[in-house]
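Worked Example 4.2. Consider the chain below.
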Amino acid sequence: MWKPKILILFFATLFTFQCVETLISVKVFPNGEYLMRFRSEGDKKDIFNDDFVLPQENNWTAEAKEKQKPNNDETIFILETQALLKGKTIFHSQSEGPFPQRHPIHVKKIERFFSTTYKLNKVFKGRRVHQKYPLLAQAMANASTDSIYEQVESEIIMYCLKVAINQIEIEELLKERILNHFRGVFYKAEEEGTLLQVLSESKVINDKKFSLPEKLIRKNLVPFEMLLPSNFVDICIEKMKPYIKEANITVELHDDTFKFASVIPGLITKSNADSITNDTLWWNFNADDFLNDDYMIEAASVIYYPKRIQLTIVVIAAILLLILFIKYVQRRTT
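Applying the procedure from the previous section yields the following structure tokens:
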């Protein structure tokens, strides 16, 4: 089966990313604050790309270093960051767009008279790949599915075009006409066996990543130019860019692996950890675990105050004895 350079580049890229291993540790202190550390190891280029960005701003401290792989001349780059935090930490706000891998954390301390409860919740937000571009999800799951390779690029373009158009105020019927037109363009090219050529000419992949086929978009919006605002095409392309970047990051995350370790005060009462070593909870996962749905990390603990409990029992007992004594005295006097 003939595959042009663009196709070979893409799928070589898709399945040969250097693996980045990231260890995330959280130590919760009795006052509710927590020390959070990130440590990523791998190729320097992969560590500093946009797929999983380690925090380095505000109160975060960062340290970068290198080490040699045993029995190998290969250099491993290491980036470590840490900060003392409290409550909820977002990492990436909604204003940053759809592409960052969001992983908020919330550590809560709940104080009561008899006990103090600690709750830790961290979520790696699902990338929703199966809903957004199911063919890409299929290709990522099975590298041997050659029959769908030539459709992946057009699927991503259609998704980006759809979300971009839905953010622009034009008639709903016109939106459907535009989307149907592009579907027809891709379908015809696929039927004629020229889909890859069409996409290649529009530079869908640039520097081993997806990029916007601006030439293709502008050409196929010409029939609608009398019905659209004068700057519609430029606005549409700009709104598509964050979603193309989202697809790129999803692919780049594919081989990343993660470990999450946590120590929280008190007796563990709830946890979905994979294992426990001494007092440390461990989770092991990779990007496939949040490729579609959210990956949840949950733990809770409690510290009881036995002296307060004992004191309360003694006080209650004393009150009951006092009540019984008063009633006894009242009966004797009557």
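The first strand starts at residue 21 and ends at 28. The chain has two domains: 12-127+253-307, 130-250. Compare this with Example 4.1 before moving on.
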